[in-house]
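Record type: monomer structure entry
Structure origin: computed from sequence
Chain ID: A
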Amino acid sequence: MDNIYALNIERAVLSSIFFSPEVIEDLLGILKPKDFYLPAHKKIFEAMEQLNSQDLPIDEEFIRRRVDSKEVDDSVLIEILSANAITNTLAYAKEIKDASVKRELISLATEIKKVTIEDELPATEAVDYVQNALYKITTDSASSELKNMYQITTDTLLHMEEMKKRGNAYLIGETTGFDALDRRTTGFNNGDLVIIAARPAMGKTSFVLNTALQNIERNTGVIFFSLEMPAEQLMMRLISIKTRIPLQNVRKGDLDDKQWSTITKAFDDLNKKKLFVDDSGSVNINQLRARVRKIAGNKENNIKMVIIDYLQLMQGTGGKDRHLEVSEISRGLKMLAREMGVPILALSQLNRGLESRPDKRPMLSDIRESGSIEQDADIIMFVYRDDVYKERDEARKEKEAKDKGDSYKSTFINKPIEEAEIIIGKQRNGPVGTVKLDFHKELTMFVDKDNPNKSAPIVTTYDSVADAEIDTIVEIPDI
């Protein structure tokens, strides 16, 4: 059991603080009082921490005033003061932290047995408990050391040189799937929490499927948590976007020989890509974190993006007010994005209240449980299609006229391709504003207005986009 505590190392570290009090500034980024095994050592380090915060001397006299003689007797202090001096204090401190984490893991193993056998918790609650406890150990064990200016400037310069090597003046992170949006955002960057919000039927799922497809076509890995839609429905949308064969034809299997051939080749191509879908329909932040770590932990998967559809369907870890749960979820997603070094895209619903406004373009306050989400997010985007509201408004007027026995001729033209707006409501490291895209209804596909062929891959066996041109809309799929 020597590897779970080492009293001589604890004495040596405490002794080094007595003889060189300035070293405690570095140690506080690594150690906490609870990391010491001997209770008396915990009390002494806690007293040292307090003295340092109050700019008081860290010496034998002040320590004696701060600790209870019943908890820390003279023999303990004498042993510390007589310990051999050490030069590499940080290395010894890391040994103490390592032993502390091992003790916590041993304690957790005992606790697991208790909650599963003695407390007879249901399996799902026991798993949640274990994941929560393990995450707490993980976050507590992470050291936090201040970087000096030389470290910061060196790291920044290396990052800038890496960006230059890419040869792309505007795309720094993973592509959004759209050239115009990449130029406005520099892509979705590592560690970013990106919220993509909209009212129902605006196309937010379609938007992120466009993004996912563009990234897997670049041979990067994407994890997609679909909490609302089965994986098969997602794949039908994805294949419609990839082949530009209308979604309703794909859903019904209403395809000619050429289209069957095209779809077969598209599936063969997708089978080589790295897209992982979790469509279990129910997940909390702990379960999501564990599943992401499992897939992303395999370097061959090359995971560069995580997508969640959608945030309000995620569960809390139990027993909290919903606003507190959403706060826990959004903060957990942000921490996970930083930990894994990938952007996390989380879809979000908007409050119904915006539909009572004359201008229904969304704003930050329209996000459900918006406080914590707005605070944690690096980028918040809204998907908005004005024609959705125009069509509903015309249908309402027509019904009202019919109820009164009057005639009404609608002026609305149901276009196969309509303009969509991606409104950037918040961008921590860039400008806000609006990017306009085109939305192809039959394909549930967004494309760049200026360069439509760049926005979605097309299977090469398909002769041209013209083969899939749309003249009339028979049925608009739910989005």
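Annotation 1: The chain has two domains: 2-141, 173-468.
Annotation 2: Residues 2-141 form a domain with the DNAb Helicase; Chain A fold (CATH 1.10.860.10).
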